[in-house]
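Q: ATP-dependent dethiobiotin synthetase BioD, please. Structure only.
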Amino acid sequence: MTKRIVITGTDTGIGKTVFSAGLAGLLNGFYWKPVQSGLDEETDSEVVARLSGLPAGRILPEVYRLRMPLSPHRSAEIDGVAIEAAKLSLPDLPGPLIIEGAGGLMVPLNRQTRFIDVFQEWQLPVILCARTALGTINHTLLSIEALRARSIPLIGVAFIGEEMADSQRTIAEFGNVAVLGRLPHLDPLTHETLSRAMSDFFDLTMIAEGCR
Ligand SMILES: Nc1ncnc2c1ncn2[C@@H]1O[C@H](COP(=O)(O)OP(=O)(O)OP(=O)(O)O)[C@@H](O)[C@H]1O
Ligand SMILES: C[C@H](N)[C@H](N)CCCCCC(=O)O
Ligand SMILES: [Mg+2]
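A: Structure for ATP-dependent dethiobiotin synthetase BioD:
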């Protein structure tokens, strides 16, 4: 069966797409952003196509493409679309699939369903992306608690940003969670710098074991 990994985060704009591009590239896999809100800027799928080094066919089409860069439930309402969780059915593919949510776990798809409800239904292993900057201890521990309360398998935390040794340690200890690595701020951010940083700073074996 296809290995599928859900990439979620403690918030929007913390680097899930950049991490997903790096991981999908490293695994030579596929990428899927089922719900994209915001179409005026480069979409997450376009970013992954640019940064992952994967051929275009490895980026699956979104199920919902919503115009406004808002929470999907609101963006859908503005577009006059009803997001149906049942339409987000998992594709079967001949390689690992990286699935990115939008924002954090409690982000609504409609007035009844949030991303975390869909993840609970899927029961796929999750990687939680978390910033290293101040504020992360609270956001990350809350997200871990929410995942565990729903028995959603958590592979571990992927930190993004400059090293904050004590925050990272505190999350690992209080969260009783594996730390998969830390992606530093990359300048320039290119396919080359990203794939190098992913191999240097992440332990693929740990990720592979977590999604067995
Ligand atoms: N490691 C990094 N080095 C440099 N820039 C980064 C890095 N990670 C993220 N960024 C930048 O930070 C911004 C937000 O990152 P990204 O789009 O990956 O966030 P996201 O968590 O996927 O957000 P969303 O909830 O909208 O999907 C982007 O401009 C991205 O290029
Ligand atoms: C538009 C943005 N870039 C994301 N795709 C959606 C983020 C939703 C966040 C909702 C919230 O937590 O308030
Ligand atoms: Mg993203």
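A: Brief note, in case it's useful. The chain has one domain: 4-210.
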